[in-house]
Fold this protein.
Amino acid sequence: MSTEAGVSQREADFQAALEHALTGKALDPEIDRRIREGAAEAREALKKRGQTDVAVELIREIRDQ
């Protein structure tokens, strides 16, 4: 899956995962790997800092993209 201009890799991965969830279309293994890695990083951050701190950081990160 190639990303369109102005669309981040994370947004493109999210769209592919959403399409997979809604239609059952196969998910590219590379996209699946990136999503799983991101989820693992989020879980580790939650373990270290707790939900409130991570939520604020994630919101700020999303706004900056």
Q: What stands out?
A: Residues 9-64 form one domain.
